[in-house]
């Protein structure tokens, strides 16, 4: 039988691991059982050597971009090296967030940088696949598909991230979520000076546009969040939190499908069979319909609670 000390140590390790996660509701199984454990060990190492979460994010960009470059070559061996690099980049991407939560070193700039990291990875991947396809006989028209797939990817990732943060906002409140709104961001942006804060203002402009896009794709949700912010300034009622979680939690699987793991599994498949260009069509004609379905379902949930909100005021 295990000693009490061993049991306590296991429980302590479990508690540390769970505290490094955003929420079990929003985590994907592959992440929980693969990337998050690896990310946690990387986070511990980075904490020991004094690396900040933002530094880890920047390092992940180099590995992710290198992976994309290796997908240009029609060699399975080189492609597999690229696959391993991309998986390591994603482990680093997991580690930066876990490190931020463990050390309470979270910032909006860190979140923005984290989002840019993935964009750099996949920009590299899309460029490599386009160049590879042209070497294999495609015309320059392949760039049209590459760009359209890239734009689709940006929207898919943006909305998945937004819906996850909305879910966290409802179950954990402001401190447990990274949910922003364009009104507050606009006010902060307007107060910045181009002469004194040029870089910060430039980054803030991009993030403001990003947030506005998320809000345009979710009009019913914006109505719900608006009344929530005005009528529940002291915190959400427990029943509203419970009911929202029960209805919204099943939709979190769609945010995971359009994110990293699913697309990368199929990207690796196309690379293994030497048809990398299929990845663009998978993004356009498989993941986009899932995106549309996800947004429609989320809008229905938002409309449902907007209509019932008076029940929670009593």
UniProtKB/TrEMBL annotation:
<keyword id="KW-0472">Membrane</keyword>
<keyword id="KW-0808">Transferase</keyword>
<dbReference type="GO" id="GO:0016740">
    <property type="term" value="F:transferase activity"/>
</dbReference>
<keyword id="KW-1133">Transmembrane helix</keyword>
<dbReference type="InterPro" id="IPR000462">
    <property type="entry name" value="CDP-OH_P_trans"/>
</dbReference>
<feature type="transmembrane region" description="Helical">
    <location>
        <begin position="140"/>
        <end position="163"/>
    </location>
</feature>
<protein>
    <submittedName>
        <fullName>CDP-alcohol phosphatidyltransferase family protein</fullName>
        <ecNumber>2.7.8.-</ecNumber>
    </submittedName>
</protein>
<feature type="transmembrane region" description="Helical">
    <location>
        <begin position="51"/>
        <end position="72"/>
    </location>
</feature>
<dbReference type="InterPro" id="IPR043130">
    <property type="entry name" value="CDP-OH_PTrfase_TM_dom"/>
</dbReference>
<keyword id="KW-0812">Transmembrane</keyword>
<dbReference type="Pfam" id="PF01066">
    <property type="entry name" value="CDP-OH_P_transf"/>
</dbReference>
